[in-house]
Amino acid sequence: MIIEDDLLACRVYQKRLEKAGYEVDFALDGNEGLAKSHNGYDLVILDIALPKLDGWQVLGRLKNHDGTRHTPVIICTVLDGDHYRQKAKELDADGFVNKFHDDLFSEVERIWGGALEEIFNRA
Q1: How far apart are CA 42 and CA 44, in angstroms?
Q2: What pTM did the predictor assign?
Q3: H or E segment and range at residue 16
């Protein structure tokens, strides 16, 4: 599940993840993301700067809900800096990457294992 308000970014991530064999869904704002998150996704890729509910609020609610508490969440954002990374860690995010680098796909591989990086590099 990708929660990201930039439709182009959603489509890029979706294409690369589907090429690796994953089923991908996305939401374009925090409220929609929270509503969909209870469908039992294996991983959430979450932007911070979202309309309606920001990513911090979404992350907090995901990690405080019994049904999504153990779902890995990777923060993927243009916001960078130690204070953002620290806040993500405090809210129990499982990863933090810059939206404009391929680190996202390395983080997915770190969490799920396998040979995803090789597949992504060919995409």
Answers
A1: 7
A2: 0.83
A3: helix 7-19
How many structural domains is the chain composed of? 1
Residue 105 lies in a domain: yes
Rounded CA separation 66/105 (Å)? 27
Q: What is the pLDDT along the chain (123 residues), one digit of tens a residue?
A: 999 999 988 898 898 888 878 889 999 999 999 999 988 898 999 999 999 999 999 999 999 999 999 999 999 988 878 999 999 999 999 989 887 666 676 777 777 665 444 444 544
In a domain, 67, yes or no: yes
Look up the CATH number of the domain holding residue 24. 3.40.50.2300
Specify if 121 maps to a domain: no
Are 77 and 52 within 8 A, CB to CB? no
